[in-house]
Specification:
The complex is a heterotrimer of chains A (about 45), B (about 220) and C (about 220). Chain A contains 1 helix and no strands. Chain A is an all-alpha fold. Chain A has a domain of about 30 residues. By secondary structure, chain B is mostly helical. Chain B is built from 6 helices and no strands. With about 220 residues, chain C is mostly helical. Chain C has one domain. Chain C is about 80% helix and about 0% strand. The two termini of chain C are about 20 Å apart. The chains are: A mainly alpha (about 45), B mainly alpha (about 220), C mainly alpha (about 220). Chains in contact: A-B, B-C. At the A-B interface, helix 1 of A face helix 2, helix 3 and helix 6 of B.
Amino acid sequence: MKNLDSVFAAYLIGWGVFFAFYLSIAKRTSDLRADVERLKGSFSRSK
Amino acid sequence: MAKRIILGAASVLLVIAAAYAAFYVAPEERTMGLIQRIFYFHAATAWAGFTAFLVCFIGNLLYVWKREPKYDWLGVSSAEVGLACITIVLITGPIWAHPVWGIWWTWDARLTSTFVLWLLYVSYLLLRTLIEEPERRALLSAVFGIFAFLDVPLVYGSIRWWRTQHPSPVIMGGQGSGLDPTMKKVFFFSVLAMHILVAFLIVERYALEKLKSEVDILRREAEAQ
Amino acid sequence: MSLLSSTTILLGKELRTEFRSRELLTTTFVFILIVLVLFSFAVTPGTEEARQFAPGLLWLAILFAASLMFQSCFLREQVNDTLSSLRLAVSDPFCIFLAKLCANTLFLVLTELLMLPFFALFYNIPLWPKLPVLLLVLFVGSLGIAVAGTAISAISAQARMRELLLPLLLLPLLTPVLVVSSLVTASLLDREPVVQWKGIGFLAVFDLIFLTALWLFGEYLLEE
């Protein structure tokens, strides 16, 4: 079919951008959660 | 938390359903054929992006008025999601244009205005990275965000007028320029799906921003000890 | 003190400061000349093509000059923290913006007037036929540039990388001004000049919208 690869490329790239965006949010969130644990741990140790 | 998971699942399902509809439910367009099906994704994402920027504008106004950090979080979240949408619009536009017209880019009114829109919100996010202090950053970026949003209709209006003076190929077939009823239904379904997806991404990004501010508070407490 | 009298006093201060040294006007004027000369290398001068591009290049030059000119607007007030004194001196912070934007508009228009003869000379474009309307367009466009520029100057002065940030924030905002002013100027300088009143009206609307936005939200840009 004519132009099928263009249509696929468009949809895949589009979904790819959204997916990459979501992944970056998820990664930053888990990194921050790890930070929170670490900081809370250092509080209870210093008490 | 459960609500967020439901929202996420719903958005993924709706997006997949919308893609299915775009390929199998919508009739084939007469002149452009298969490539026209990009329209459902491209235009729906554009509408969702605009909605995100509207949410950003409301967040900016509310922050200036109430000075509560949550409105700043809303502003940056919706701006980022909106920018992701507009990036997709600017990528899928040329992918659509190239097979049909043989050119990657054309300064047609909508694409040009959308590019300026993209630049405006990139500037908004860049401004935020250049101000350290959280309250000042929130306030200054909120005011800039308000200016940027007020500028958007002026940008679109001026570039459309420019294009009537120097016409160029109208790529996107003119939205609503006689859309077949089934196409219209598929289109509005796609718009709904993209809006749910955008809502989900804004919620997730907002949660991240909220977490960031909690970590900052904890960090400052840790340093104080 | 009323808005008008405070603004007049502050405006007087702005004008006196500038006309003492005239450094802003002279450097901006020389810069615009340099930009016009550089453009002439990019576009073969004297040809029909140059004549078509010239109005757009004119406004580009004005935009670039404004991006540089407005840097000092609020940066100047950070030395010795004169901004705090200004804030205390007036009842309505909008006076500060109003005075600065009037001064900025004036400086910009003055620079443009000085530059016009050179523009006509370099690009072989007679300006006489529609000079009054041309001056009107220059004024309405420059006012828009000054309103946005003054606001953005207040923002960028409080951020890092301010020299780069100001054009980065300002130029996308001013796209409508560039587009419409170039179009109106082009049809004014055409072989058969036409006055596009719709365009001039659009510029006036732009000015009004941003002036109102500055009036509503400007004071938050000056907060401690």
